[in-house]
Design goal:
Length: 408
């Protein structure tokens, strides 16, 4: 069923006082940048989230700070600040701010500078560094929410490779792309071998979907009926508000998530990881800049986002050879900055997409009434949430074969 314009606005808008944005900022730790992007005493990194501008920086002793970008004095950008002696010094008037958010020097104040420093309204935010990611809490409550303890967070650096790319599309379009197993068989058909994805994904294009709701989101099985009577089952997990865990050979999982930059732009994250050993070098991991990968679309709407029609004439299905995910980016951007879901005509392959919308709308409506989050069951850990893929006999129940316990 198409989504009404009212529900689409509630689902997609995150800036200002939009309920979805307020819920996401209050209930969740937000990925802001990768650890690799911050160098001790290096240049502050400009970060935009939910339509607001911030800076992230690493000080002399390795700690990370996260401030509003504008200096509280005359609103100059602190991205231009000197990063020195465990704090930032604005180059405009020399005011200095410690990494923990205190104003420690105001050289332009002639009377009782210490008392003046105590009154400066510097806005800073709690941060955590885990799994090669800098996480920030942008809420206004008294205490940050519980941290989502995914399995990759404690892995050695060589075992996980976080990276992200900026995409000109609303964040929900990113979520729907990662949890849409049927498109992989078609959109990515020229890329599957390069990325080591099972042959069944390209051979059987019309999977049957079975969705199971959980307290953290849902999981779904994409079941592909094979010509020999067996079935190929690929189980993906969705964790509120934006995490998708997908099963890929050579990795324990790839974690995808789409973090809102504003209403019309997304930071699309990818984290391949493997616990027992460093994963082999593959097309997923061939990057040098963790804040600029996979490759963005090479064009814009004026030139069909840089699609290579000559390459299509030679057999490439999409004309976007750069990366499997570049193909996703092209589809997301071609839908428009915020897709009109009232005009969609959906089919049975869209069950997981519909479940994403239902899960998020249920959460935001709960927030609008009580502003309380769903409680975690006692003893639950996000480490238990894993994707899977396997073959089963034609009469076998995939739930019996699954090694992952569902938490409802």
């Amino acid at each position: 069923m198409p989504l009404s314009q009212q529900d689409n606005i509630l689902l997609t808008r995150v800036t200002g006082d939009a309920p979805m944005g307020r819920m996401l900022r209050e209930w969740y730790w937000i990925p802001a940048c990768t650890s690799a992007q911050l160098i001790a005493d290096g240049a502050p990194l400009r970060v935009q989230l939910f339509g607001e501008r911030y800076i992230a920086f690493r000080v002399t002793d390795g700690r990370v700070g996260f401030f509003n970008e504008a200096c509280p004095h005359r609103r100059a950008s602190l991205a231009l600040a000197r990063n020195e002696d465990n704090g930032l010094r604005c180059v405009y008037h020399g005011w200095k701010f410690s990494v923990d958010g205190r104003t420690v020097e105001v050289p332009t104040e002639a009377r009782d500078a210490a008392a003046f420093c105590a009154r400066v309204p510097l806005r800073h935010y709690p941060v955590r560094e885990a799994g090669g990611v800098i996480w920030v809490w942008l809420g206004k409550g008294i205490e940050p929410p519980a941290f989502q303890d995914f399995a990759f967070l404690d892995l050695p650096e060589a075992h996980r490779m976080p990276h992200y790319q900026k995409v000109h599309a609303n964040w929900v379009q990113g979520l729907e792309t990662t949890m849409d197993s049927s498109h992989a068989s078609l959109l990515h058909r020229s890329q599957l071998a390069r990325f080591g994805i099972p042959l069944e994904m390209s051979t059987y294009t019309a999977p049957i979907f079975e969705v199971e709701a959980t307290h953290y989101g849902f999981r779904y099985a994409a079941i592909r009926e094979k010509t020999d009577g067996a079935r190929f089952v690929r189980i993906s997990q969705f964790v509120l508000p934006w995490y998708s865990l997908i099963s890929i050979p050579n990795y324990d999982a790839i974690l995808f998530f789409s973090v809102p930059i504003d209403d019309e732009h997304t930071a699309y994250w990818t984290i391949p990881h493997r616990a027992d050993q460093p994963p082999p070098a593959t097309a997923w991991t061939g990057f040098t800049d963790s804040g600029n990968w996979p490759p963005a679309v090479p064009g814009d709407p004026e030139n069909n986002w840089g699609q290579n029609r000559a390459l299509m004439n030679q057999g490439h299905f999409t004309g976007f050879p750069q990366h499997l995910t570049t193909e996703d980016f092209a589809m997301m951007e071609s839908q428009g900055a915020i897709v009109d879901r009232e005009e969609e005509f959906l089919n049975s392959a869209d069950r997981a997409v519909l479940q994403i919308r239902q899960s998020l709308l249920k959460s935001v409506r709960r927030f609008m009434v009580s502003e309380t989050a769903e409680p975690r069951p006692a003893g639950f850990s996000y480490r238990q949430v894993k994707p899977e893929q396997f073959n089963i006999a034609g009469n076998e129940d995939w739930r019996t074969r699954s090694r992952v316990k569902v938490v409802s």
